Please model this.
Amino acid sequence: MENLINPSPVLHERKSTHRNKVRIVSSNESEREPIDTLEIFEHIRDITDPEHPYSLEQLNVVEEDLITVNDDSGHVKVQFTPTVQHCSMATLIGLCIRVKLLRSLPKRFKVDIYITPGAHSTEAAVNKQLNDKERVAAALENPNLLDMVNKCLIST
Amino acid sequence: MARLEQTQVLEGHTDRVWNVAWSPKGDSIASCSGDKTVRIWQRHGTTDTWICAAILEETHHRSIRCSSWSPDGRYLATASFDATTAIWEVQGSTWEQVALLEGHESEVKGVAWSSSGSLLATCSRDKSVWIWESLPGNEYECVDVKQGHTQDVKMVCWHPKGEVLVSCSYDDSIKVWIDSDGEWECAQTLAGPGLGHSSTVWGIAFDTEGRQMVSCSDDQTLRVWACSFDNPGCGDNAIRLFESQAQEGHEKADGSLPSSTFCLAVTKQNAHSADVNCVRWSPSKPDLLASAGDDNTVRLWLYTPDPDTVCSR
Model:
């Protein structure tokens, strides 16, 4: 790419993670373990940035601490932090996160995706678009856009 | 207690069902889906079981977002993300595509037939509302293209009695369009702090007489314009029915309606196993409700109001 939006992003190491809370071992083997923030993070940490050969985790775009999950009610909320305030890739990054979770989670989960408050100049507009499921559905029927999303998801 | 009981699940679509539309007589339901087909459901013989009577396919190559029956029940118009609107004609039980309306630059989100059947309105992601005239021989002519919304137009709805068109949009506003000497113009914009919605307006509906209109929005509220009730489908998988409290006074002397209150008559949690995209009352059986969901199903419901009162008055 010729004109990078953020030519020299700050890089972070891929962290090793561990569960903060020990999972309660169920006596009933058939009982499934609830989905937690770490599991959501594992799904999205290795998504490749649309313009850099780095993962969203390496660019600090996604962090486990910015994910909230309520397994009982089937709600997931992911906040992500674009590397720069004017990042024009913000919508595409959010779309990649949405598609990845759409493909990975059981259908009963509802996912809200937001930009970390204060992290983007057109935060409200990007949030509105990412959470309009009709526009997301239409976007995913666009072969070029779907192709771009799939490229970012190959690494996951 | 008021009750809402499921009577049947109509399965067959292989992707989310965006919308359901009752035929004017209430004997058919058209459901349209992300699987690029429309299914026509009809009562099986004299039973209360609904079956798929026809599948309309191979015209649209992207999601079908919305459909609308002509008032005489002979035609169905379908709006698609492929930027076209198709007109289908039914003869007996055979459906045939008889026209394709092109012109929108991007996804068509809504289509609606006027009460006379002579006009058709479409709206699109391209921010415009188009008004088409139905001419003999399955010809359709675009009579006006209305710009005015600043964003994606989600739905169009005609007044049940006259040629007044209402549109609602991602720009948080509702616009009222009227014919003024052959030129359609925006008569009113319902928007702004203290008046309108604070996020996307997804749906609008009139009562039978058209004196009241209700709108629903991403801001999680319903707004009643001159007072009404409606039955929203929700992103939390539930269906809620609201009833207006009976007003003894009826019309005030100046013809305006008394202000009324609405109360939640029943909440059906997990009506679908995913988002509820559309709910529509049967035009012929007032207690029968159809809903469409992201779980790929259409569901039929029987509503039993509380025999005494639904609200603590």
User: Anything to note?
Assistant: The two ends of chain A are 22 Å apart (CA to CA).
